[in-house]
Structure prediction request, 532 residues.
Amino acid sequence: MRALSASIIAACARALAGPSVRWVNIRPATRQRVYFANHTSHLDFVVLWSVLPRKLRAMTRPVAAKDYWNSGLRKRIAVNAFHAVLVERGGKSAEGDRTTTARNTLEELVEALQAGYSLIVFPEGTRGNGLEVGPFKSGIYHLWCRRPDVQFVPVHLSNLNRILPKGEFLPVPVISRVVFGPALKLEKNETKESFLQKAHEAVCALGEA
Amino acid sequence: MNFKLDHQMFLVLNVVIGGLIVASLVGFALSRGVKSEERRATIDNLNARIRAWWIMIGIFSISFVIGPAGSMLLFAFISVLALREYVSLISTTRADHRTLFWSFFVFTPLQYWFWYKGWYGLAVILIPVYAFLFVPIRLALAGETTGFLDRAARIQWGLMVCVYCISYAPALLTLNIPGYQRQDAKLLLFLVIVVQLSDVFQYIWGKLLGKRKIAPSISPNKTWEGFVGGVATAVAVGTALWWMTPFSPLQALLLSLAAALMGFAGGLTMSAIKRDRGVKDFGSAIEGHGGILDRMDSICFSAPLFFHLARWMFVSEHPLLFR
Prediction:
């Protein structure tokens, strides 16, 4: 049932967003990955998820904000169809005053990884304006610290903000673009700053690819 | 508006399919004997184009068999896809969002609905009058003034070219020419054959003989040799097809010429937009051809003229008298 409704929603999302998909120096594979992308629209995870090959969709869970996706129809879509991991937002994660929310979020994501799932995350934490990629929150770095064996794959999404911008509820069918890039190459003892910088640069570079 | 499938239409569709079989065989033969890398790319593109033609002609034929509703739906869908390619390519802003929503989901369906109902008066003014006025009003209500005229004009232009102009092609089914009732579909087939053949033969003659470029700054592939050869071939075929239309051979020749020339002008104009935006194609929906709009650019410009000329000559209260 879940697979069917998710397939239908994925087909609708692909019809609406008409995404052109490119895999640059990387191939779709069943190995465990964290796909991280820039964030401009509520459609982001739906589209990113729907352009994955069917086999990968079943093993990939998007991470979405609980405040938006946790009621009524949205919840049914996010949780039942996409098997999304819903997390609290606003973990102001400056080192030192990391709130318990951020800590809980991290635990939930690690748990999903332990269960063998791949994840789709948006490290900006909030939707940007589509012009530039905002600074990344450090959560993704802590996730990597816990599971350095998982591949961290950058993804750049464009035009989705034009389909369903912030604050709009009716979509316009503009053609979007999804570019997957090669997994991050990281040192064993990568610092937080250099991790976040590499991750950010990787996403931005795909925007120009 | 009504038509039956008659033997003339079947005959023509069969000839088209026969031509496509020949093209596929030629493409196959060419691909066997290629040596250089550069020629290989050209031949691969040619074969991709031929494969795409099979699909396009298949879809077109199915819509014909379904009847007028099928053709209207097909072209409405083409309009949406063309407008989508256009909007994706030009830059629109956040403040344009709701106006674009109206363009896609209100004006486009209405345009085709009016033609389908045969409401000629409404169909010809919906976009040039109502949408023309509505677009700037809605943009003004959105409150953003930066680039206002620019943004309004872009949306108006997109609606005109991708929706209004393309809708004239299936509108041929509503012409109801006296003595040609229930056969209007052949007029649509005639237009599509002439315009697309003109495109195809401009490409072929251009590849074979092309030397002198017509507009190097706009479209490096358009040559005088291709233009003359393509238009001449299309006009010859159009004239030879007069028996499937309500036209005399001379009228068929003149209308084919008008359609082929406008088709060429459409390709050139749409290329200018692509160059301005720094892209080669509007999209990648059709293998080898680019986007929907790359294939439809010639129909966009020829269909309105063809429709109104035919209407003026055969339907209006003061028809042209040289028949």
